[in-house]
Amino acid sequence: MELSQGYSEVSWLRRRTWADWLFAAALLAGALFALNRYGHFMDYYENAILIGAVPVFALLGWHWRASRVLMAGIAFFALSGISLYHGDLARANQAFFLKYFLSSQSAILWMSALFFLATIFYWGGLIARSPVGSSLGSTLCWAAVLLGFTGMMVRWYESYLVGVDVGHIPISNLYEVFVLFCMITALFYLYYEQRYETRALGPFVLLVISAAVGFLLWYSVARGAFEIQPLVPALQSWWMKIHVPANFIGYGTFALAAMVAVAYLLKAREQKKLAIAGAPLGTGFFSSRLPSLELLDDLMYKAIAVGFAFFTIATILGALWAADAWGGYWSWDPKETWALIVWLNYAAWLHMRLMKGLRGAVAAWWALTGLLVTTFAFLGVNMFLSGLHSYGQL
């Protein structure tokens, strides 16, 4: 058994093509360039993360080849934007490409517009049964993710132009994490879109992303949230760099699962009506356009499983961060309490799925209700409650 497993691993490595190894080499070269150029801004922990990201992203690129083009595009556009600053933040309103395309604010606005357009084209493709419309929706979604990540990378650099003591990873406030949420949700959807070879779920998933973009734009205009601010003392910790991304992988995949649940419920309800009427099950609007209920159920389960794993990691990291910052692992702060409620909700969902065979409409309604619970934990706590996490209030 061990010999066959070892042979399988060797065989897997031998199946790597020259393009695979070239991609890995490019990642390593990029990491070394970043260390040489920006290493003096980073501590030992950040240097370790940068080096450790090389094999992680290499494996991602080997497994999901479309992500290679995305990573290359992010590197190209982010470095192009950074190079145009010449160390002067004022150039964001002077250099043409920065002002209209590559400054963080411009790139994130483009991301927002492209997500809205992607939603329209996805729905147009679904309603008209147009592969061209759905394909355009997918392309626009990829472009939105590209510009969103470009904006975040450039914003990271801009924070250091504001002041070396101000510079930080751009995941510290609601504006930045809403951008992160949009991109993570879209990325996981795009992966499953290719994995299951269907674009019929794009209209549903893009609805929740567009809602997040709508909040992001309101928050930017009403509160001037796009302005880069120094970190409050509670966030001046390396724990933030791993806790927040893990948390939002959970939020993004939970949102994805909820929108798949919406599609499941619509199709199941329509099929029930068709069965009562004695009509063929594939003749309805949703029945003829959406994937099978079995596939939707499987995707819902996989999204929740991935989200639960990362949310568990994020919760553990949050407890360690709390011990470091406040001297205790748990204090029943409203944010902590609601994070626990979210965790228990999805733990119960997975338990019922794996132990009791939970399927169908009950599982879908539960996943959809889970989005409401998660939204309150993510946003509602900041709006209506106060506590140790009050620095994140609206």
UniProtKB/TrEMBL annotation:
One term under GO cellular component: plasma membrane
GO molecular function, one term: heme binding
Coiled coil: none
UniProt entry keywords in alphabetical sequence: Cytochrome c-type biogenesis, Membrane, Transmembrane, Transmembrane helix
Primary location group: membrane
Membrane topology: Multi-pass membrane protein
Pfam families documented for this protein: Cytochrom_C_asm
Entry protein name: C-type cytochrome biogenesis protein CcsB
Domain Cytochrome c assembly protein: 172-389
Lineage: Bacteria, Pseudomonadati, Pseudomonadota, Betaproteobacteria, Burkholderiales
InterPro entries from the UniProt entry: Cyt_c_assembly (IPR002541), Cyt_c_biogenesis_CcsA (IPR017562), Cyt_c_biogenesis_CcsA/CcmC (IPR045062)
Membrane-crossing segments per the record: 21-38, 44-62, 69-87, 107-128, 140-157, 169-192, 204-222, 242-266, 299-323, 335-352, 364-385
Keyword Transmembrane: yes
Localization per record: Membrane
